[in-house]
Automatic annotation (TrEMBL):
It comes from Granulicella sibirica. Belongs to the NAD(P)-dependent epimerase/dehydratase family. SUPFAM superfamilies: NAD(P)-binding Rossmann-fold domains. It holds the Pfam family Epimerase. This is UDP-glucose 4-epimerase. Keywords: Carbohydrate metabolism, Isomerase, NAD. One of its GO terms (biological process) is galactose catabolic process via UDP-galactose, Leloir pathway. Coiled coil: none annotated. GO terms for molecular function: UDP-glucose 4-epimerase activity. Pathway: Carbohydrate metabolism; galactose metabolism.
């Protein structure tokens, strides 16, 4: 949103505020409070403006929760996305950037994961997003909908006063920083027996600023009819870190001890998710600048302290 505004775009945010606050929306953006399931309101919103494209971020995002209540993920992430797509078709809006996920892959056969790797999610969250990718393929084939599906790996870090906060918080870096700030007693490590160098899960952490750049590039490509009408890209750095390494990096950055508690595995977590992102680098010129883990955590820490101190 902030990068779009800074690049001269007008932005309309459509969100039901189920997992966010109105205050996160920049003053310069138009805000519509509504649910993805409300086709009439989406259509009215699309008709009220002139849009280069739709960026679709709205979703339930906790892989762990999806293994307890899968039905709400299929309803909210899959069925309601279909409602959005129907509204787009009805209003002649044919460009979409979709927030997909590394969770579409499941447990990879090879690392780094390339976009044509097998797609076998290990959690219902990933499946709910993969189903959208399948729907999009047909929307492209039959209706000519132009789309970019960006499979984010683990997004983290902060930019220009905007950082990572989920409601409730479930993500590893903000949780660790909560411990550093004394807002939580310890960080739980989910699983110590994964086939990784220290037994904890490996993830590829990508800075939110680099992710935002990828969205702008994708939108630009969608408006260029000479570019492919269907794009699928991994968004990650190509370097993975174990949970213990992330905690160690946070200790370095914050100077705090950060107590840990060793816990059982969280159902549905793949052992290793590391991106091969050469395709978006080659085709769209994506050039991530903020990939170093310490830099990501430093930006997150600065933001976290301001927010909660
Ligand atoms: N954070 C990550 O590491 C990560 C990684 C891969 C993919 N993604 C995807 O990126 C997107 C954004 O994730 P985030 O981390 O900012 O999560 P978030 O929870 O902060 O943002 C999701 C937003 O969607 C809204 N929303 C949910 N359901 C809605 C509905 N039915 N109608 C309207 N609004 C609704 C929520 O209120 C919230 O503001 C999601 O689609 C997520 O699956 C995130
Ligand atoms: O208290 C915690 C929280 C997480 N973890 C572990 O830390 C890693 C990262 O977990 P988390 O931050 O919850 O992210 P993921 O479950 O990897 O999922 C994120 O990254 C995915 C892409 O890789 C996205 O699709 C999801 O939306 C996003 O939540 C995982 O191995 C977890 O098991 C812990 O050990 N303790």
């Amino acid at each position: 949103m902030r990068l779009l505004l800074a690049s001269g775009h007008s932005v309309t945010i459509f969100d039901n505020l189920s997992h966010s606050k109105r205050s996160a929306v920049a003053e310069a953006a138009t805000f519509v409070e509504g649910d993805l399931a409300d086709r009439d309101l989406i259509q009215t919103t699309l008709r009220n403006g002139s849009f280069d494209g739709v960026m679709h971020f709205a979703a339930l995002i906790e892989a762990g929760e999806s293994m307890v209540k899968p039905e709400i993920f299929f309803r909210n992430n899959t069925a309601s996305t279909l409602t959005l797509l129907e509204a787009m078709l009805a209003t002649g809006q044919k460009r979409l950037v979709f927030s997909s996920t590394a969770a579409c892959y499941g447990e990879p056969e090879k690392t780094p994961i390339l976009e044509d790797a097998k797609l076998e999610p290990t959690n219902a969250y990933g499946e709910s997003k993969l189903l959208v990718e399948h729907i999009l393929r047909w929307m492209n084939k039959i209706h000519g909908m132009r789309y970019a599906s960006l499979r984010y790996f683990n997004v983290a870090g902060a930019i220009e006063g905007y950082g990572e906060a989920h409601e409730p918080e479930s993500h590893i870096i903000p949780l660790i920083l909560d411990v550093a700030l004394g807002r939580r007693k310890n960080i739980k490590i989910f699983g110590q027996d994964y086939p990784t160098k220290d037994g904890t899960c490996v993830r590829d952490y990508v800075h939110i600023r680099d992710l935002a750049d990828a969205h702008l590039l994708a939108l630009k490509a969608l408006t260029d009819e000479a570019k492919p009408s269907r794009m699928i890209y991994n968004i990650g750095t190509g370097t993975g870190f174990t949970v213990r390494e992330v905690i160690e990096a946070a200790r370095r950055v914050t100077g705090k001890a950060i107590e840990v508690e060793e816990c059982d595995r969280r159902p549905g977590d793949p052992a290793v998710l590391v991106a091969g992102s050469d395709r978006i680098r080659a085709e769209l010129g994506w050039n991530p600048q903020h990939g170093a883990l310490d830099e990501i955590i430093t930006s997150a820490w600065e933001w976290h302290q301001k927010r909660y101190s």
